[in-house]
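Anyone opening a protein record will find just a pair of labelled lines. A complete record is shown below as an example:
=====
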Amino acid sequence: MPSQKALYGAQNKSVRIGILVANDNLSSGERRRRGILG
């Protein structure tokens, strides 16, 4: 059984990745809205 600390670390990592992905989606949406490609 994984320890609580290991579980917490994995959960934290996925949350951080989710935030990064959300930020990336937001910034690409912003770029599209302004008509800048890339």
Summary: The chain has a mean pLDDT of 80.
